[in-house]
Specification:
Pfam families: LRR_1, LRR_14, LRR_8, LRRNT_2. InterPro entries: DNA_repair-toleration, Leu-rich_rpt, Leu-rich_rpt_typical-subtyp, LRR_dom_sf, LRR_N_plant-typ, LRR_R13L4/SHOC2-like. It comes from Gossypium hirsutum (Upland cotton). With about 725 residues, the chain is mainly β. Among the domains are: about 130 residues, Ribonuclease Inhibitor (Leucine-rich repeat, LRR (right-handed beta-alpha superhelix), Alpha-Beta Horseshoe), CATH 3.80.10.10; about 210 residues, Leucine-rich repeat, LRR (right-handed beta-alpha superhelix), CATH 3.80.10. The chain contains 5 helices and 46 strands. The chain has a 21-stranded mixed sheet, with no helix packed on it. Strands 1-4-6-8-10-12-14-16-18-20-22-24-26-28-30 form a 15-stranded mixed sheet. Strand 35 and strand 36 form a beta hairpin. It starts with a helix and ends in a 28-residue tail after the last helix.
């Protein structure tokens, strides 16, 4: 009995010691996690006080905001600080969270290098660090994570190559998002060893070289986004092995060669974007083309192959065989000829059609809107189209944007478009439209127009007073479209100087009236001064007479005005000094007289703004005013409803794009702009920069291309273009 008692006592002591050690170890581990997170808190700024008021020693770590603990041992297994406006750096201590399986610090303002100690977190299954400002090479901290399935580092400043052994380090990876960084080098062949990959986005980096044939090994791939790089060579035939692919972006690269007909094997394809490359292909009904092969893709909603100048031929009637689900079709800036087939009217859910910049001829088919009530964007500009606008356009009751510029259309003003309740952008520029506008305008027409470009036509008569009165979206904020995002490209020509801005923003970026280069005559109606939201006004190169209305002083948002090459007379109204946003003023070649107003913005304009008006005097001109040439109080003008010359005014050339995907329309938002020449108009640059700052929190232009986990596979789309 004595021995038995001794044995029992020893067993109890061992159990007690094990309990004490286990408890001590568990407490130590919990304390390690707590101290690690407190070290992180000490490294960040927390303007919204998410951590400041909650991460405290007085509160259990498992109740801290963004922290999830394992129920049994109370170790931290998940840290989710997504979109908390945090800024700062990640301390090396983070490598001590050894039980961590999920790390989400996306959409903050973390910066600097990531610590190498993160390689210790071998249990991680999910990492999202997107939309921060991390830099350095990925290979410096991505270690062996045998269970990692999701990795998103998009929208940062990572540099260097993609690790060639990425799949050896991450053998179970399913989703990889590295878009919008500064990555360089070739796409490593080793990346295609990740046989379980389902979604890849490497968009908008500086990757080069060819697209390897080994891409065909990723038979589980659903999304492949490589746009916005410097990839060369041909599209490999092996890409047709990806039979489960739904989204394929290859746009904005340097791809060459024929577009593979075998793309038609991708029967599950929903989005295909091949635009902005040097790809070739012949479209016709006599031979099988990539376009006809895509009839196999019954779920195709988005097809873009624009800006490939080597694509030629014509669109056959069989184009109607493309998916009835097609919402977005971009064939712009190719070399396609013939007529635009009326069969496109069979795409009765299409919201975006762009045929601009080709060699299309003939008339615009009256079948375009025969069955389609969802069309929002129609661009047929920069072709050789003739005839008149079809009345069937009134069936497109949802249309927002209509661009028929730079064709050979001959018609009177299409006043009947005024019944379209959503029309906001109307561009008839550079055609042969003629006659008077004034007699056609009903009192309720065009109330939502924000951009109207009738320039370079043969319109005559008085400027239409009723038309200006109807432009409610340029008067009252409640008429302005603030609910939709549009892709915008603005080509601006000033004095023969061309520059192009590519951006995507919420409407309206610019409210504009351009009636230049016509034959309007008579006085400028006083009611134009009621358009308080108008930002750009161009009435140049007409035969307008009489004074500049003093009511222009109430155009509070005006940033650019061009009244050049008319026959305007009288003094420059002093009320114009109230236009505090005015950046461009051009009164060339009129008959204006008297002293130039001074003060506010007028003190910033140089003498070039007033050239060709011999009767003007005062600063900034060298001609001094006589004593009797003093400024007079502005007089109210009677409302005289009221216009060709040669030269270079301010010309707006517009093109807008929206990208659709899935069951709804997803609109791209790009805030970057590209200037192709020097000599930018400061007013527009400043405006764009100001607007972009206001929109940056919800922007994703050539950015925001990598989705969060809950957004897959609906990648946000972007396709450049206009106003």
């Amino acid at each position: 009995m004595g021995n038995t008692g001794l044995i029992m006592a020893l067993m109890m002591a061992v159990l007690l010691l094990h309990f004490v050690v286990s408890f001590s170890t568990k407490t130590t581990d919990i304390n390690t996690d707590r101290s690690t997170l407190l070290a992180l808190k000490a490294h960040v700024s927390d303007p919204r006080n998410f951590l400041t008021t909650n991460w405290s020693v007085d509160i259990s770590i498992c109740n801290w905001v963004g922290v999830t603990c394992e129920s049994r041992n109370q170790r931290v297994i998940a840290l989710d600080l997504f979109n908390m406006s945090l800024s700062g750096t990640i301390p090396p201590d983070m490598g001590n969270l050894s039980f961590l399986t999920r790390l989400n610090i996306g959409y903050n303002n973390f910066h600097d290098l990531l610590p190498v100690q993160l390689t210790n977190l071998y249990r991680l299954k999910f990492i999202s660090m997107s939309d921060n400002n991390f830099h350095g090479e990925i290979s410096s901290w991505v270690g062996y994570f045998p269970e990692l399935q999701y990795l998103s580092l998009s929208n940062n400043s990572f540099t260097g190559p993609i690790p060639s052994d990425m799949c050896d380090r991450l053998p179970t990876l399913k989703e990889l998002y590295l878009s919008d960084n500064k990555l360089s080098g070739k796409i490593p062949i080793g990346l295609f060893k990740c046989k379980g990959l389902q979604n890849i986005s490497l968009a908008f980096n500086s990757l080069e070289g060819i697209l390897p044939e080994e891409i065909g090994n990723l038979t589980t791939l659903r999304t492949l986004d490589l746009r916005g790089n410097q990839i060369q060579g041909v599209i490999p035939q092996q890409i047709s092995n990806l039979t489960g692919l739904k989204v394929l972006y290859l746009s904005h690269n340097f791809l060459t060669g024929h577009i593979p007909v075998t793309l038609g094997n991708l029967r599950d394809l929903e989005l295909l974007d091949l635009s902005d490359n040097d790809l070739s292909g012949t479209l016709s009904s006599s031979e099988r083309s990539f376009l006809s092969s895509l009839a196999n893709c019954s779920g195709l909603t988005t097809l873009a192959f624009g800006s490939n100048p080597l694509i030629s031929g014509y669109l056959p009637p069989s184009i109607a065989n493309l998916s009835v689900s097609l919402q977005y079709f971009d064939a712009s800036s190719c070399s396609i000829s013939g007529s635009i087939p009326g069969e496109i009217g069979n795409w009765n859910v299409a919201t975006y059609l762009d045929f601009s910049g080709n060699h299309f001829s003939g008339a615009i088919s009256d079948r375009v809107c025969k069955r389609n009530n969802d069309l929002r964007y129609l661009a047929v500009n920069d072709n050789q189209l003739e005839g008149t606008l079809p009345l069937s356009l009134t069936n497109c009751s949802e249309i927002v944007f209509l661009n028929v510029a730079d064709n050979n259309l001959s018609d009177t003003f299409p006043h009947w478009l005024g019944i379209l309740p959503q029309l906001r952008v109307l561009i008839l520029r550079s055609n042969r439209f003629h006659g008077s506008i004034q007699s056609y305008i009903a009192t309720s027409s065009f109330s939502k127009l924000q951009i109207i470009d009738l320039s370079h036509n043969d319109f005559t008569g008085l400027l239409p007073t009723n038309f200006f009165q109807n432009l409610m979206a340029m008067k009252e904020a409640e008429y302005v479209d603030n609910g939709n995002w549009y892709s915008l490209v603005v080509n601006l020509t000033i004095k023969g100087l061309e520059l192009e801005f590519t951006l995507k923003v919420r409407m309206p970026l610019l409210t504009c009236i351009d009636l230049s280069m016509n034959g309007f005559h008579g006085e400028i109606p006083k009611v134009v001064g009621e358009l308080r939201l108008l930002q750009a006004l161009n009435l140049s190169h007409n035969s307008l007479t009489g004074p500049i209305p003093p009511s222009f002083g109430t155009l509070a948002a005006l940033e650019s005005i061009d009244l050049s090459f008319n026959r305007l007379s009288g003094r420059i109204p002093s009320q114009l000094t109230n236009l505090t946003f005015l950046q461009v003023l051009r009164f060339w070649n009129n008959n204006l007289v008297g002293p130039i107003p001074h003060g506010k913005q007028f003190d910033t304009f140089e003498n070039d703004s007033y050239r060709g008006n011999l009767g003007l005097c005062g600063f900034p001109l060298s001609k001094e005013c006589n004593n009797d040439e003093i400024a007079e109080p502005a007089q109210d003008e009677e409302d005289n409803g009221n216009g060709n010359g040669n030269g270079n005014g301010i010309a707006f050339i517009w093109k807008v794009a929206m990208m659709g995907y899935g069951s709804g329309m997803v609109l791209g938002i790009s805030i970057g702009y590209i200037v192709f020449t020097t000599g930018r108009p400061r007013w527009l640059v400043r405006k764009i920069e100001r607007d972009l700052q206001n929109k940056v929190s919800s922007w994703f232009g050539k950015k925001r291309m990598s989705p969060r986990k809950d957004e897959v596979p609906q990648l946000v789309q972007e396709q450049g273009v206009c106003m």
